[in-house]
Amino acid sequence: MSLLELENVTLKFGGVTAVDDVSFAVEEGEVFALVGPNGAGKSTIFNLISRIYDPFAGDIRFQGQSLLDRQPYEIAGLGIARTFQNIELFEQASVLQNLLVGRHKHRKSNPVGEMFFTPFVRREEKRHRKAVEEVIDFLDLQPYREKFIAGLPYGVRKVVEMGRALAIEPKLLLLDEPASGLSVEETQDVAFWIEDIKKLMGITVLMVEHDMSLVSAVSDRVMALADGRMLAIGTPEEVQRDPKVIEAYIGSDDAEDAA
Amino acid sequence: MRIIFKKSYDADIGLFKHGFHAFWYMLLLVIAIALPYLVGEFLLGEFTSMLIWAVAGMGLMLLVGHTGQASLGHAAFLAVGAYTNVLFMENWGLPFLLSMPLAGLCAAFAGMLIAIPTTKLHGIYLAIATMAIGILSESIIVILEPWTGGVSGIFAPDIELFGISFNRYANITGMYWLYLAITVLILIGYRNILRSPLGRSFAAVRDSEISAQAMGVNIARTRTLAFAISCGITGVAGAMMGHFSGVFNNETFNIVISITLLLMIVVGGIGFIQGAFMGAIVIVFLPQAISFVRDIINGMTGGSSMTIPGLESGVFGAILVAVILFEPNGLWGRWLKIRTYFELFPFYRRDMFRRQKSYLKTERMR
């Protein structure tokens, strides 16, 4: 049984078919990358898994269970964490608070106890803090703990968002363009982190990425999409050599003739 | 320059950020307790009124400042608290210490009833919906005349506690201490919420619903909880207000009160508990300050008691405009800047508090 399975998933916005009959399976312990030109439906697939959109047809299964009868806020509880293409951090809060929100699904205290801040709540807070500190150590975020997101540079925000997803302690991590807008050095850091997330933490990674050097460096399997349809699936080299993929990116001779 | 050395996670979890804060707030508390010996009866009454406004402000601050939900109808929950409190005392003979929390619970329940149908509303639409509730509540008070006394109003009985009777005119000192105790308790509860997962989930809903959801925060439940707690605190403030004014009717809780509450927390500093107190100080002491200045000017010019109609609201409006233009974080935000300047002297930079505009904020899925 695969960790995550998409089966004939279709999504339409009015007359536009954003995702057209897409099926794939992510195996446990691998790094799986989705590539494709803009508007290919990569982020839409992420939003389908996060239950922000309801698919028109098809089924999405995580560990054999269908996600379609789950509410969006239950997805994190199942062990799926995600980042966003356009960074959706809690701007008016510190890095530490952002990471601690990632621990929300591990929360055992109830609101009434929290109002009185019982000793149990305090113990829980320390437990969460320890878990978050491990993420901070992993991602080298120590200098930014108390800093507010609103004042942080773009590169650091990207890392904080990855940290927040890791604080969930997920089984599956969805990374939406982890290297977009980053410098070459920062992209290299991201590549090392993804390797470590896979090997040291044992977390399966599904990512959308445009930077082909990063994709070929870290991913075990790649799926190429264009106009919501699957073009090719396989190792990074196989997909990059696939004529249909080259056609989608560069255009075919026919297309040139027509134009 | 001050460097804080933290030795355990408790230092970050504590009520106060560090010993200096604890010292200053304790000093403030001591002064607040000793206040009846320092000022006259009239000023003490004003301070009591300030406490009531601060509690109401804390209620609204939790909702607007920390959960990011607008409300233009909080006077309705003041009314729920004030009326239910008196009804519990008059009809069931409950003591104040029981009727006040019960009144808070009633207001919290009312807030929940409002929150459930409005969970999908955002921004201006939520403001309009809550404003409608604020306007409706005035009429409802009139319609429920058998209980509320309608337009002729209702009398709040004296508070009886441990054989002592509390009344604004007979025993303002006792009333002040009682209200101070309530304020401090609510303040601690509020601070506890902010340093626990509940407060963080409020902030998450405020800053990005989409990623709060992805973190496992149930948006509808969190928003309903925020409304309930906010309205509960406001209800307690309503109960306090009822006893303070002695008699009240539908006019006491009109839409102007709701708007004043919202303006108060904006002037004080939105997103800070201290902002509620700063706003309350402005609201209560501005009229005093104006009459004080007026007396001085009259004394200098030798003029008779000159009065300018609408001067108070004019000055308050000017303050509001100035705050929005020059200091979006309100009076408390300004104080934070001044404090940071001295803490870091001479390393303060001009744009230290400037928020970097984030780019790439397209594709927001609402």
UniProtKB/TrEMBL annotation, chain A:
Keyword Nucleotide-binding part of the UniProt annotation: yes
GO molecular function, one term: ATP binding
InterPro entries membership: AAA+_ATPase, ABC_AA/LPS_Transport, ABC_transporter-like_ATP-bd, BCA_ABC_TP_C, P-loop_NTPase
GO cellular component, one term: plasma membrane
UniProt KW keywords: ATP-binding, Nucleotide-binding, Transport
Protein's UniProt keywords contain Metal-binding: no
ABC transporter domain sequence ranges: 4-252
Domain of life: Bacteria
Name of the molecule in the record: ABC transporter ATP-binding protein
UniProtKB/TrEMBL annotation, chain B:
GO-annotated cellular components: plasma membrane
Domain of life of the native organism: Bacteria
Membrane topology designation: Multi-pass membrane protein
Segments traversing the membrane: 20-38, 44-64, 94-116, 123-144, 176-194, 225-244, 256-286, 307-326
UniProt protein name: Branched-chain amino acid ABC transporter permease
UniProt-listed InterPro entries: ABC_BtuC-like, ABC_transp_permease, LivM-like
GO molecular function (one): branched-chain amino acid transmembrane transporter activity
Subcellular location: Cell membrane
Pfam families xrefs: BPD_transp_2 (PF02653)
Keyword Protein biosynthesis belongs to the record: no
Keyword Transmembrane helix: yes
Alphabetical UniProt keywords: Cell membrane, Membrane, Transmembrane, Transmembrane helix
